[in-house]
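Think of the structure tokens as a kind of shorthand, similar to the way a musician reads notation: each symbol stands for something richer, in this case the local conformation of the backbone. In the example below we present two proteins back to back. Begin with the first one, reading the sequence and then the tokens, and try to describe in your own words what changes along the chain.
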Amino acid sequence: MTPQTTYYSWFPGEEYLTITLPNYDWERRLIICKIIGSLILFLLVLPMWFSTKVVTNSTTSTDAKKATERNNVNSSETLPGKRRGKKSNTDKYRKSAPSKPTSQQSEINGVVAYEISSIASNFFSLCFVLSVFAIPFFSENNLFPARTLLRAPVFTREECQHIIDMAHDAALRNSQEAEEERTLLLTEHPELLSVEVDSQGNIPLNYTTTTSENLQLYQKFNKVNSLLRSPKGWKKDRHTHYPTTDLNLVTDPFTAEDKEWLGQRLDARLAPLVERAYGIARGAIRANDIFVVRYDANEGQPNLRKHTDSAHLSFNLLLNDEFEGGGTRFHNRIDESYIDIFPEVGEILLSHAHILHEGMATTKGTRYILVGFDQIDEKDPLTGESTGLSLFASWLNFCWAQIRFREGWEDGLKRRRKRNRNDGGSLGGDNIESDWRENRYVTSLFSDLDSYMTKFLDRFAPFRSARLVKSEFHDEYIAVMDRAMEQRKQMEEAMGVSRSRATGYSSWFKGQQIHLDVFGSYVKSWRERTIAEDKFKDETL
């Protein structure tokens, strides 16, 4: 099985869908045909249609005149062996028959040509260039994924409860480890007991007066203290700008069995859905972060303010319904309208990651959701393995290319800040010998492309939501998806096909928490992954 065969046009749950999803294979062929048609129309047909017929006289050509005179003289001479003065029948025929004009005679008599004005020529060329951009932009291949919110069942209610139990067990392990670490810190550094703390029990950090050694100690103490605050064992500071109370499936102590159980269900149910709904090869899907979030009405975090996610696709899956409030609100940047979505337990909510959204407040009880930030890779950034991703799902698709430019801009800024720290230079300065990715003009270009493409998509892509499967068919739909995966595994086992991204399997855990450049190449790992790199080894996943 090659990367080219990993896009499955047949979707096991097609009969249960309530809407007609785009046929991406057909859409992409249609884009190619339209571009070829545009080329023929604007560069061949219309220029010929609007051209004028011009006859050019070349009577001033002395060389052409002399050449014609020599031809006439030669044609009037008698044939060899004939007596001078006696005319043959051939000579008579030559005089009576009209002579065919040579090419030089044609130039003298006039040449027919077709001309088109430079204004018209430039206009048609501009129309062709614009059509090359407009045709893929206004296709369903681009507009449907850009601003369409999709709901579909992925887990049963019992499976959702199992995920919550997995999270509670991981939190318990975290809190036990934190208790042991806190005891060890206070034993080794009893002076911590006399240090002033804030209302959260954290030691305030003063970077100007505190020594680097004490800063590291205080940071470690605060991290342990955060885990011991209610709810115990749950991380409260993983995401810097939009922190959530959560647990990551890799860096937090979920077991290998937990990840295997979850990965099997995501392979069978989520990966085929993403492939069918967005036209993305299954092997191209890589989770950059998967975590369980809790929103508490009385303690901790009840909601999450407006934001976008750092990914291509994002999903959240409701795990329980023993709460009031909640839901996700998606905002339209153009007319400031919004769509509130309240999924059922086990339903996943899929969307383009750069749609502005917020987690609405939980007013009673605790709301649990499984959240994922998914990247779309042309190649695996860690191994270089091909994923079989079509160009129409990357650079030739505005809604995905826009995120590439965003990543290029962010990568450039990080590089420039690093260079600034290393050499004490200014962010505005550029060295000719420096990496082009940190050049200020390149980063500025990426930023502008990201901004303008986002505005275009906000303006033209329909902002809508769709529920793909009715509630009464949830269990049947999930069973059909599972059977299809079992059949696939049996077929691949018989063929000797191993599991890899090239053979159509998504990466849910191993490729998490890394930064990429504009071309999807590895740049560096998140700080959280760097600290816990041993948890990303094959034997622990």
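Once you have a description of the first chain, move to the second and do the same.
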Amino acid sequence: VRGGCYAGDWVNCPELPSSLPPTPSERGNVFTTEAWFQNTQVRDRIDQTIADEADIFVRNALYRARTAASAIWVSSTKAIDSAHAALAEASTMSPVPLVTLVVYNLPNRDCGGASSGEFCCDGSIVDGQCPQFRNMTSTAPRDCGRALQKYKDFINRLAAVLGRHKKVPTAIILEPDALGMIVTDGACDVVTIDNFRKGLKYATSVLSQLSSVYLDAAHGKWLSYPPTLHTLALTVKELGVAPMLRGFATNIANYQPLGRACEVPDTHSQLVIEDWIAERRQYCSGTDGRQDLCCADPCGVIDSWGFGNNELNYVVALQRVMADAIHGFKPKFVIDTSRNGNADARQDCANWCNIRDAGLGVMPTSSTPLPDILDAYVWIKTPGESDGCSNKECESFASNCLSADSIGSGREGAPTSEPDAPVAGEWFPYALRRMAFFALFMRGDCSFRVGRVNLRELSPPLWCSQRSHDEEACTNSYVVKGIFFHRCQYIVASGKCTMYKRVQSECPDLDPPRPPPSPSLPSPPGPPPSPAPYPPPLPPPPSPPVPGLPNPSPPSPLPSPPSLDWLASKHSPPPPLQP
């Protein structure tokens, strides 16, 4: 902020800046900053979940999760205060950590979905939704001018806060889903789409002068097909924001697998995106490709003529199509890995709400396999926050929150031990414990070697008996169950594949840490990526309350560590907690 003007409004300011703000390339990869800011409120909530969890392996995973930096969501005007508090706190730290902010407040946000915002093109929020979407028979508004001006004021206020904390490095993830909805129209009307375009252009022009901006580009299951990739690149070109962007963010709040990027040489350097994708689809359909982990396709994207079967393939395709469409533009990417640790978590990849078997993914890091393309893996969506309510009586109920893959006892046939999911954004400890149970970092990279095994089939001890009774087929069957690695065993006497046993894996990090002989909590599995210390081991029960949280009623003594048999089946929920 200079001369009393908001950033981005230099033309009307009484004094001009002494120098132009750095370009995205000059600013570089801010995620290489030595430290990343941790949301202390999230850490406190995870601490409470740890205190309430009896299983030692889930607790270990949660200990890792509590050290992860997570983004601050600025999804309302009031949330700017939270951003200001985080930046102020970060400015007092040494070294000064990177703060990641998610700006998510466009008028008619989510086009009537479960995440409606505070600005509506046709008035004010009513029972959690804009009137236009609450009454689908109503006429769409003729323009969104007043709401768009409120959004610009919101962006200006956030810019002013960023301007007060210039020494704090920041990254901004801009408007999840908006670009995807522009490309595919979705449930949005023409006026809303036009409003999205104007809002994105304004927000990028203002915020890019103060921060590295990554515009959300949905995920590979949504946009990795030649027609949508072309439309995506054309949209970015028409908006005129490419020179202001550091790049794009993908997989925000979604579950698309990270996977591996296919290393397929181009037949020539001028391939159009259709031919580029066709070459890789042909490779994946061949003998070599069927054995290559980069071709694993749990959501059937390659079969649908796309090449976003995993997010690494998707960002490679995105950079190529953007460079072809916009001269000199080679965007960088960040991928949200907060909840994509279990590639086979869903029966239907269209399901997105509180997925029952989702797992925590790769921990946040700037060390990536594609350093020329990929800036970082980031936890953008906060693990443990609900995607939406599973109770039809909720104001912002979304039908997908009662899908076959979703946590929620309101669904017919759902496990009776499952609680109802709360409204979007509220803390959901049960979901976090499930994600900790399936955490990728508790299995290690070896899980990719057995990725062909469909985790939904596991139901020991019947799983092996459902395999072929052929000895070779039986003994070559491997299973990943939670954090265990198993092999089916052929019984010669009976001629059946009826048993499985835990075996030593080829990768030492696949086996879970062994619990210590004492009843105290195990040491954390690794050093934290931020200055925040691990919590000391909790004393023997009853456990004291977590500092900074309301004092709970005295808990019952923790039970003895449960039998590990239940961990062998993904269908078995964690043991019920003590009241």
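Compare your description with these statements about the second chain. DSSP finds 16 helices and ten strands in the chain.
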